[in-house]
Design a protein that fits this description.
The chain is α/β, with parallel strands linked by helices. Helices cover about 45% and strands about 20% of the residues.
Length: about 500
């Protein structure tokens, strides 16, 4: 029978284009299944086929269990004590094997082997098809609609491979029928109960990027680089590009002669409007480009919160925001910054109110007049800590300030900080300063509001702090910082200890 097994393996391997090793593995499973049917109890067994001779050996298997009581499954388990009588070095969880008589190839055995082998061969063929498609992940492929069901489209990817295009990954209002040609992006191979499934998409931002890579040779050659993509599938998209060669206009290259290139991509996406955004290393200019067609009049960048306030003329506010906020949302996504669009009058009022509050605070704490305080505010200083501890060179752009005045100003700021810290101690609220992002000014404001301990700060909601002249992002970070120092203190300590043990 050995030669027959070798012949079967070689024939199936050649016929189905499956590695011979997988055929042998399928035969071993088939023989093991046939062996188990010969016993009245559910034993566990393993068959090993000699790859050269075709002969095979069968082993019965037991799992070693460390227990003093009765075994849960004595047919497939053996106690650690019993196993160590024959194997002194064995441990719980190991496998004990004994050779048992192998089944002969009678009619029932052959039938069982055929069933198991057929299933394993189908699985092996499917795995081979999946592996062939793995190298195409992230690329656009041409396919044919094979079936349409409630879940979406089953599409033929070629060479016997099938993919699934779910309805939530289809462009709205697109309809396909069996036999239609379609272009999709292969996104992932998902493990499911019925086997690996190749997932496809027409709504992913990467699909748009790959279409431009196909239509624009400069992108495929690496001369033009895609810096960001954002989409409302079927409606509108923004794609940011830059050129590595100053002689090439990246925007013009993507648009093409008479708009041919961008139009080809738009037609593939059911008429999706595409804005080509020119990337710029200057963030303010990049924001201006991303907000087109709206014209930006003022930009305020907050690095701490990774947010940007954009001001536009009052009459252009609707255009800048876009229908249902589409323009600003896509711009935020392509920039990877949080954008907030405001009318010029609204931003002027906010900046004036903020500046007035800073001026008042400086006049009260630094023993300076209102004009001097306004000069400091206009120069970008907002807190006592900034005035007290920045290098003296930072004041060089302020007209009329010499070294002596700068020194005196910083000494006043340090004295004010010390006085505020004494007030906090007197209030019993000095522990608030342990939270990152809380300065003496904010700590005093919280103390006046009745928030004097880390526990009390941890219990606050974001809305409770935003009226202290801080934005929602900073308020959230401060509250979470207080909770990490109180509620989650033990968890953080355990995490730090585990990390330290791992490093050792």
């Amino acid at each position: 029978m050995g030669k027959e097994i070798i012949a079967i393996a070689e024939a199936l391997s050649n016929e189905r284009a499956i590695p011979k090793e997988k055929i042998f593995e399928a035969l071993e499973v088939a023989l093991a299944s046939a062996t188990k049917k010969k016993y009245s109890v559910d034993i566990d067994c393993r068959v090993e086929i000699d790859r050269k001779e075709g002969s095979y050996t069968t082993y019965r298997r037991w799992v070693v269990v460390d227990t003093d009581g009765p075994l849960d499954n004595p047919v497939q388990e053996i106690s650690l004590a019993a196993a160590r009588e024959e194997y002194p070095e064995i441990s719980a969880g190991d496998i004990v094997e004994d050779e048992i008589p192998s089944v002969s190839f009678d009619r029932i055995t052959i039938q069982t082997a055929k069933q198991v082998l057929s299933q394993r061969v189908r699985n092996a063929e499917r795995e081979q098809l999946i592996e062939d498609q793995r190298g195409r992940l992230g690329h656009v492929v041409n396919a044919t609609v094979k079936r349409v069901n409630r879940e979406g489209l089953i599409i033929d990817l070629g060479n016997g491979a099938e993919g699934l295009l779910r309805r939530d990954n289809m462009i709205p209002r697109e309809n396909y029928s069996r036999g239609d040609r379609i272009r999709v992006l292969l996104t992932e191979i998902r493990e499911e109960n019925k086997g690996p499934q190749i997932m496809c998409s027409r709504t992913a931002p990467e699909f748009l990027a790959e279409l431009f890579r196909i239509e624009v040779p400069e992108i495929g050659e690496g001369v033009i680089e895609i810096m960001g993509v954002a989409r409302d599938a079927g409606s509108r998209a923004k794609i940011a590009v830059r050129s590595k060669d100053k002689r090439i206009d990246p925007r013009g290259a993507c648009i093409g002669m008479r708009g041919a290139r961008v139009m080809a991509v738009s037609n593939e996406l059911a008429g999706e409007r595409i804005d080509i955004v020119l990337w710029d290393e200057n963030l303010a200019q990049y924001v201006t480009n991303a907000m087109e067609p709206a014209e930006v009049s003022r930009i305020v960048i907050n690095d701490e919160n990774h947010s940007i306030d954009v001001a536009v003329a009052d009459e252009n506010l609707a255009l800048a925001i876009g229908r249902n906020g589409q323009n600003v949302r896509l711009a935020s996504q392509v920039l990877n910054w949080s954008l907030q669009v405001k009318a010029e009058t609204e931003m002027d009022q906010e900046l004036a109110a903020e500046s007035a509050q800073i001026v008042k605070f400086f006049t009260e704490n630094l023993d300076i007049d209102e004009d001097f305080a306004r000069v400091l505010s206009d120069a970008g200083f907002q807190t006592l800590e900034e005035v007290a501890y920045v290098p003296a060179e930072e004041f060089s752009d302020i007209e009329g300030l010499d070294d002596e005045l700068v020194k005196a100003l910083q000494e006043n700021a340090r004295a004010a900080i010390a006085a505020n810290e004494e007030k906090l101690k007197a209030e019993g609220a000095d522990e608030l300063m342990k939270v990152e992002g809380v300065d003496t000014e904010l700590a005093l404001a919280m103390a006046k509001k009745g928030i004097k301990t880390l526990e009390e700060l941890a219990e606050q909601a974001i809305d409770d702090l935003t009226d202290l002249n801080i934005d929602a992002q900073r308020a959230g970070d401060i509250i979470m910082g207080a909770r990490n120092l109180t509620w989650f203190k033990e968890e953080n300590a355990q995490g730090d200890s585990s990390a330290s043990d791992a490093e050792q």
